[in-house]
């Protein structure tokens, strides 16, 4: 079977930089509607210590998920024939949410909108979306790998794009975590050594499906029927810490590799403390004592949590050597892993060609 090789990447990092000080005038409430007693500066500083986020990126007024997905796609397709694409897969969860209007717009799909914006005439370039929570881009990569290995397709563009700033409740402290962004990856089937070696996905919906959901604003006198993203952060933390290391070990076992073979681990960036704890648990699970200081590149401190865009953005910056102290060369092994709404967890092993 052919191998699925990443031949190019692109990303769109929004221009609006939102520092933590932006939230000092917010009024925060709990799920019960009671205003939080702790002073806002303390709330902001506590969240910074936990998540590592000091600033995040928002899209400018007037831009949508389609706009930034298109920009990432253009960058990834630079120098490549768009008409030869077999698939355009877009991971997103809220469609085009316009500034000042929380009604989601998902018809037609973001993938079809991107295809139209790219002016692709080929009717057999199939375009569709994946609403799979934060692991959506990685799941798109996994699905594309199936297409390419089957011989049914030769090229697939996988995009992760989200504008979480439009669906975050300004009265919920979790609003300080969310950010916007887009990342794109072009995969091609090839006889070249390397590429995607293995992947694992699981969905724990029986008792965990609603840990991430949509809900009303926490402010009791908030007017309107808008729905905002809500999450049980502590429960998600415990679930991720317990389960993500198991899935990463499983995907390495499927590839016939050990943790000592891995050069980089690219985790979904939702919480720096959580990612660090997952890494420690993974190394303990694999019986490895020393954790290399450069194994897990992080951008959350300035990019925030942009959901499906976090890993492809991180990958684009890494491959273009725009992350100081981090590099991947031929033969290196990278592991990708994500956790999010559903609850879904996935992981993938990739060998640089």
TrEMBL record:
Residues 252-352 form the Beta-ketoacyl-[acyl-carrier-protein] synthase III C-terminal domain. Gene3D superfamilies: 3.40.47.10. InterPro entries: ACP_syn_III_C, ACP_syn_III_N, Thiolase-like. This is 3-oxoacyl-ACP synthase. Keywords: Acyltransferase, Transferase. The keyword Transferase applies. It comes from Desulfosarcina alkanivorans. GO terms for molecular function: 3-oxoacyl-[acyl-carrier-protein] synthase activity. Residues 128-204 form the Beta-ketoacyl-[acyl-carrier-protein] synthase III N-terminal domain. Pfam families: ACP_syn_III, ACP_syn_III_C.
């Amino acid at each position: 079977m052919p191998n699925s090789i990443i031949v190019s990447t692109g990303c769109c990092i929004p221009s609006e930089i939102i520092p933590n000080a932006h939230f000092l005038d917010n009024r925060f409430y709990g799920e019960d509607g009671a205003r939080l007693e702790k002073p806002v500066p303390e709330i902001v500083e506590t969240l910074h210590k936990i998540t590592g986020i000091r600033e995040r990126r928002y899209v400018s007024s007037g831009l949508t998920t389609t706009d930034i997905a298109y920009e990432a796609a253009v960058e990834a397709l630079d120098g490549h024939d768009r008409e030869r694409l077999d698939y355009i897969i877009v991971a997103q969860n809220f469609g085009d949410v316009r500034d000042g209007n929380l009604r989601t717009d998902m018809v037609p799909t973001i993938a079809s909108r991107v295809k139209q914006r790219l002016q692709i005439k080929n009717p057999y370039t199939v375009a569709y979306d994946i609403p799979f929570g934060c692991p959506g881009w990685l799941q798109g990569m996994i699905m594309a790998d199936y297409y390419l290995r089957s011989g049914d397709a030769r090229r697939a563009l996988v995009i992760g794009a989200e504008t979480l700033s439009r669906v975050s409740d300004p009265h919920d402290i979790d609003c300080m975590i969310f950010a916007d962004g887009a990342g794109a990856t072009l995969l091609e089937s090839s006889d070249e050594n390397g590429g995607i070696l293995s992947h694992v996905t699981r969905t724990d919906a029986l008792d965990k499906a609603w840990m991430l959901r949509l809900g009303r604003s926490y402010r009791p006198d908030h007017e309107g029927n808008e729905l905002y993203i809500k999450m049980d952060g502590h429960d998600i933390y415990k679930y991720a810490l317990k389960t993500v290391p198991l899935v990463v070990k499983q995907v390495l076992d499927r590839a016939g590799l050990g943790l000592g073979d891995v050069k980089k681990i690219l985790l979904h960036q939702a919480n720096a403390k959580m990612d660090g704890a997952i890494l420690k648990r993974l190394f303990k699970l694999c019986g490895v004592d020393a954790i290399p200081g450069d194994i897990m590149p992080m951008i959350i401190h300035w990019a925030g949590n942009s959901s499906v865009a976090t890993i492809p953005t991180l990958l684009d910056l890494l491959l273009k050597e725009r992350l100081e102290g981090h590099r991947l060369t031929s033969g290196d092994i990278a592991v990708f892993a994500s956790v999010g709404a559903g609850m879904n967890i996935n992981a993938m092993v990739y060998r640089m060609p």
